[in-house]
């Protein structure tokens, strides 16, 4: 199965890259843009058939390597 | 006893720091490849600057999980002095030997220039060669040097005297204008609570002899040489 992982900055952590993207969008005329936050998307293929076991493993991966939990949150979606 | 310098794929200040260490200690340091799992007998470990593993995922994230780092972490916990410079600081933070993280510079630009640093602590093995409040001129060269930590940890760093260096103007004033990367509280270098691990973004090894244009960095290596010879 596959894990789809979204890693995002915690609220309160400044995101200068998101701000730069926001300014660029505004410059392109997208007036409705109020805020942009940039993150990461990672896909992991697992040789695991049990969704809960897969989630536990991927959560451990996020804690140990994929996210820096000082500044980042992660969200895991397990798909077949 | 000699020092050890950890070398990762992408390290690029390992030889500079080796020259500075040899000048200070009279002996070349042991150069230890990241895939080693043990360190030679040594009384000082340096994690040098560079772009280990191409800064993949996050600066320092991969190196923090390399085989040699497990040994470095054990030795740091046992009290061996560990100095992390630039990417070395990022690695020590990712390895949780030091609190906080080094984020993308607030300007989003790679900043490569000399900056002024105020010495906040002189009662450490790293900084005993300086005077309190002394202003050093040392180069920085990084894209991810924006030190960040939560308010609680920052307070702990302040209260515990764990801030070793701050970015300042040439008169030693800590101002927003003198902050090259957006670091919280103008932090340029921090110590762990025990005082045996120092991480700093500026490069003392790059101004450690007159031929390089300055010698402000030399006193750090001199102090370390004295500390480990004692």
Order of SSEs of chain B: EHEEHEHEEEEHEEEH
Q: Label the CATH architecture of chain A.
A: 2-Layer Sandwich
- DSSP strand content of chain B: 15-25%
Q: List low-confidence stretches of chain B.
A: none
CATH architecture term of chain B: 3-Layer(aba) Sandwich
Helix content of chain A: 25-40%
Counted beta strands of chain B: 11
Distance N to C terminus of chain A:
5 Å
User: Structural class of chain B, please?
Assistant: alpha/beta
Assembly status: heterodimer
Give the overall pLDDT of chain A as a whole number.
95
Can you tell me about this structure?
The complex is a heterodimer of chains A (80) and B (230). Chain A is an alpha+beta fold and 80 residues long. Chain A has a single domain, classed as Mth169, Chain: A, CATH 3.30.1280.10. Chain A is built from two helices and three strands. Chain A has helices spanning 16-27, 51-66; strands at residues 2-9, 40-45, 72-79. In chain A, strands 2-1-3 form a three-stranded antiparallel sheet, with helices on one face. The longest helix of chain A is centred in the C-terminal third of the chain and has 16 residues, at 51-66. Chain A starts with a strand and ends with a strand. In chain A, 14% of the residues are buried. The mean pLDDT of chain A is 95. With 230 residues, chain B is α/β, with parallel strands linked by helices. The longest helix of chain B has 12 residues, at 14-25. Chain B has helices at residues 14-25, 67-77, 87-94, 151-159, 218-229; strands spanning 3-7, 30-33, 44-47, 82-85, 101-103, 111-119, 135-142, 146-148, 163-168, 187-191, 197-200. In chain B, a hairpin with a 5-residue loop joins strand 10 and strand 11. Chain B has five helices and eleven strands. Chain B is 23% helix and 24% strand. Chain B has a nine-stranded mixed sheet with strand order 2-1-3-4-11-10-9-6-7, sandwiched between helices. In chain B, strands 5-8 form a two-stranded antiparallel ribbon. Chain B has a single domain, classed as Rossmann fold. The termini of chain B are close together. Chain A binds chain B through residues 13-14, 16-17, 20, 64-66, 68, 70-71, and chain B through 57-58, 61, 65, 94, 99-101, 103-108, 148-150, 182.
């Amino acid at each position: 199965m596959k894990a789809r992982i979204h890693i995002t900055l915690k609220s309160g952590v400044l995101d200068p890259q998101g701000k730069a993207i926001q300014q660029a969008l505004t410059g392109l005329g997208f007036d409705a843009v109020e805020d942009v936050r940039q993150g990461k998307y990672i896909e992991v293929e697992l040789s695991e058939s049990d969704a809960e076991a897969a989630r536990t493993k991927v959560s451990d991966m996020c804690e140990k390597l994929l996210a820096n939990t000082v500044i980042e949150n992660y969200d895991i979606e397990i798909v077949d | 006893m000699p020092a050890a310098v950890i070398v990762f794929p992408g390290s690029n200040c390992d030889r500079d720091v080796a020259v500075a260490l040899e000048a200070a200690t009279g002996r070349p340091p042991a150069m230890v490849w990241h895939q080693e799992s043990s360190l030679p007998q040594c009384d000082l470990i340096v994690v040098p600057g560079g772009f280990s593993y191409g800064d993949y995922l996050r600066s320092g994230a991969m190196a923090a999980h390399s085989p040699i780092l497990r040994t470095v972490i054990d030795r740091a916990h046992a009290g061996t002095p560990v100095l992390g410079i630039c990417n070395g600081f990022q690695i020590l933070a990712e390895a949780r030997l030091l609190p906080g993280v080094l984020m993308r510079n607030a300007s989003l630009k790679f900043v490569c220039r000399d900056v002024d640093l105020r010495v906040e602590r002189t009662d450490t093995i790293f900084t005993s060669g300086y005077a309190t409040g002394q202003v050093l001129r040392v180069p920085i060269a990084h894209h991810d040097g924006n030190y960040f930590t939560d308010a609680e940890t920052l307070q702990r760093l302040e209260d515990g005297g764990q801030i070793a260096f701050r970015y300042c103007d040439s008169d030693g004033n800590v101002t927003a204008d003198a902050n090259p990367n957006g670091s919280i509280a103008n932090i340029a270098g921090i110590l762990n609570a025990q005082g045996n691990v120092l991480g700093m973004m500026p490069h003392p090894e790059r101004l450690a002899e007159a031929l390089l244009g300055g010698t402000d960095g030399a006193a750090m290596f001199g102090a370390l040489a004295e500390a480990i010879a004692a």
